[in-house]
Amino acid sequence: MPALALALGWRAALVASAALIAVGALASLAVYRDPPDAALPPAAVGARGVVASVLTSRDLWLLSVATGVFAAMQTVWMSYLVLYLQGAVGLTLLTASRLLALAQLGGIAGRVLFGMLSDRLFGGRRRFPLLLAGVGSTVCTIAIARTGADASTAGLSVLAFLFGVVGIGWNGVQHTWMAELAGPRAAGTAVGLGLAVSSAGVTLGPLAFGYVVQRAGGFDGPWIALALSMVVALGLLFLVRERRRLLA
Q1: Which of 29, 82, 128, 204 has the fewest CB atoms within 10 Å, counting from its CB?
Q2: CA 186 from chain center: how many Å?
Q3: What is the DSSP letter of 89?
Q4: Coil, helix or strand for 64?
Q5: What residue spans of the chain are helical by DSSP H?
Q6: Phi and psi at residue 43, to the nearest 5°
Q7: Are the CB atoms for 63 and 134 separated by under 8 Å?
């Protein structure tokens, strides 16, 4: 996107991005078919409605709030990394932007990696990959708080990529776990709840972080506070009662 914006202008770059999304949506509509065994089981006698069962689920709320913090941390990094690297570390805008792009590339790899870890290494369990992502994000956030003008570009590149893997790659595991906790009849509603809470984290996280940066007069304390918020989220994950899923 940055290269396209420089070549064509930011409006044309956004139009090109939207066009690619539209092409993907049309391709999915034309190609994707539900599997033949995707019929829902009959509702149990006396079962609550789908929305009520989701909104009253302790585990779904715990998972949603925990991953809302994950989403907040992810968006804070994406929003403030370039500003921080320019202002506190002294990198040029071009170099800082390249590190942001590198983090996004790490996120691409992370989404595949964490799905494979969850399905293969952990036998269908979802908590462990999310814990790894949360711990990794916390370590990366503490590390970025300790960087300064003496930080090497190579070291920052590794840090940005690693955060992309752990701080962006967790989403698919969250969606899968939400669907499994809710069951096939309520899977879509449960994922919607998770996305709604994550969207709140996406919106409020950068606002709160920016406010604290202004009040503190620097980034060090806010980065550490962000890391501590992830510790709370990890504690919430331990409270979720997991239903183990094994591959056929």
Answers
A1: 29
A2: 22
A3: I
A4: helix
A5: 2-8, 10-31, 50-55, 58-84, 93-116, 127-145, 153-168, 171-182, 187-216, 220-239
A6: -70, 140
A7: no
Q: How far apart are CA 17 and CA 52, in angstroms?
A: 37
Residue 76 has which token pair?
A: 């804070």
| Residue found under tokens 């690619």 | 20
What string of pLDDT tens digits covers the 248 residues of the chain?
777 888 888 899 999 999 999 999 999 999 988 776 555 566 554 556 889 999 999 999 999 999 999 999 999 999 999 999 999 999 999 999 999 999 999 999 999 999 999 999 998 899 999 999 999 999 999 999 999 888 999 999 999 999 999 999 999 999 999 999 998 889 999 999 999 999 999 999 999 999 999 999 999 999 999 999 999 999 999 999 987 554 43
Residue that has been written with the tokens 């992309």 in this structure? 164
Q: How far apart are CA 133 and CA 167, in angstroms?
A: 6
Question: Please, what is the end-to-end C-alpha distance for the chain in angstroms?
Answer: 40
Nearest Cα residue to 162 out of 117, 206, 105: 105
Radius of gyration of the chain (CA): 20
Position 140, amino acid: C
Residue that is written with structure tokens 């715990």 in the block: 62
How crowded is the C-beta side of 186, counted as CA atoms within 13 Å? 23
Read off the tokens for 234: 């990890």
- d(C-alpha 110, C-alpha 106), whole Å: 6
Record the tokens describing residue 245, joined without a space: 């899923």
CA-to-CA distance for 116 and 125, rounded, in angstroms? 11
Separation in Å, CA 154 to CA 106, 108, 137, 145:
15, 20, 19, 17
